[in-house]
């Protein structure tokens, strides 16, 4: 489907100016004829389609903080994970740079990546090496948040927008989607493409249980100000259940005036990861 759901409410505010006449003006009806009641009308709220167009047209280079937290449970064993990164995004050419730390099983390691021309270059801290993959095949289910708005067009009934204070909000809730198969396949495949056969077996049959995202944008500049989301996947196994629960936050958005260049040695030495 080519369009997103249109906002179901258009707020109209009308104010009528009541004019009272002083006693000495009562004998002069000709002046009363010149007095007109004025009506002020608030502009119509943008529909979701219009809002999306404004956001895309006004998109500029920016930076923000990314935080992902969650838990992975396999056969009764639970592992907590957390990632905190600073992300920089340029628009022309389109390129993203992310650097930060990831914590799992009590240990912390550096995470860094570049995205450009459909490729993702990722730093492997333990091996001190770079790898190269197609962007669509990244293992992080939250990795494509900034393009999610466009991908949700095929599930327009799951998308709604509203205007609150000085911000617009766009909310995606997969529980309201009629056709969620494509997104579900994309997310679940992130966990079933692991090279380790035991891990693939643990995630076999995993299903998407819930997925919500809330984007906020400034109502004048249409620049993004935050994002919050949650994700839950699990298998139906009663003996050895596997589940993933995670939350994501993006905040501290600010204009980015620098340039992003992928180091030549990274491009040259990055090992291609087979799909």
Supply database-style keywords.
outer membrane lipoprotein receptor (LolB), chain A, 14 strands, alpha+beta, twelve-stranded mixed sheet, 6 helices, 275 residues, 17% helix, two-stranded antiparallel ribbon, disordered N terminus
CATH hierarchy, class: Mainly Beta
The largest β sheet comes out as: 12 strands, mixed
- Mean pLDDT comes to 78
Order of helix and strand elements from N to C terminus:
EHEHEEEEEEHEEHHEEEHE
CATH fold naming: outer membrane lipoprotein receptor (LolB), chain A
**SS strand fraction:** 35-45%
Under CATH, the homologous superfamily reads Lipoprotein localisation LolA/LolB/LppX
Structural class, by secondary structure, is alpha+beta
Number of strands: 14
Protein name: Lipoprotein
Organism: Baia soyae
InterPro entries: DUF6612 (IPR046720)
Question: Could you characterize the architecture of this molecule?
Answer:
The chain has 275 residues and is of the alpha+beta class. It has one domain: outer membrane lipoprotein receptor (LolB), chain A. The strands form two sheets. The protein has a twelve-stranded mixed sheet with strand order 9-10-11-12-13-3-4-5-6-7-8-14. A two-stranded antiparallel ribbon has the order 1-2. The N terminus is likely disordered. This is Lipoprotein. It comes from Baia soyae. Pfam families: DUF6612 (PF20316).
Summarize the helices and strands and which ones pair or pack.
Blueprint: E1 14-16, H1 29-34, E2 39-41, H2 48-57, E3 62-74, E4 77-90, E5 95-104, E6 107-116, E7 119-124, E8 129-134, H3 145-151, E9 159-164, E10 167-173, H4 181-192, H5 197-203, E11 207-218, E12 224-234, E13 242-255, H6 264-269, E14 271-272
Parallel strand pairs: 8-14
Antiparallel strand pairs: 1-2, 3-4, 3-13, 4-5, 5-6, 6-7, 7-8, 9-10, 10-11, 11-12, 12-13
